[in-house]
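Issue 218. Parser rejects a valid record. Input:
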Amino acid sequence: MKTIRTRLVLVAVVAILGGAAPAPQNEAALRQLVGTRVTVLMDMPATQSGIDYYPQRSEKIAYDKYRNRIRETGIAIDANATATITEIKIKGKHIEFQLDGGGYGNFGDYEPTKPNVPYPAKTRREEDLERDLRDETDINEKRRIER
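Output the parser choked on:
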């Protein structure tokens, strides 16, 4: 699984922790969360933009942005999976939590983050048609099978 950088606000980490730990009161206490294993309660998009959380709003998560990020980049960490907080960055009013090692652009990244969508396996019907096509000698029957 590729690692990603995920942006959340402090209250989101408290939600991820499920209230298991009291909310940190200052920057030093916040940085002590590095190394903590957390359970992610919702799918995390495979983008450095992560999830935007707004504690003062009635709708805490910008679901339109969340939905678009999942659609465009896929899921990096599944809901109910555990992850490690590997870094915390404080940027003015924003607090960024990096889960499972950081994000794209770290040493060793050699391709853009893309969702890994496996090609579906052939159905029994497809396999039978390919076998029939290969074994058929009548040209008209071959055309019918190809259609």
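Fixed in the parser; the record now loads. The longest strand covers residues 82-91.
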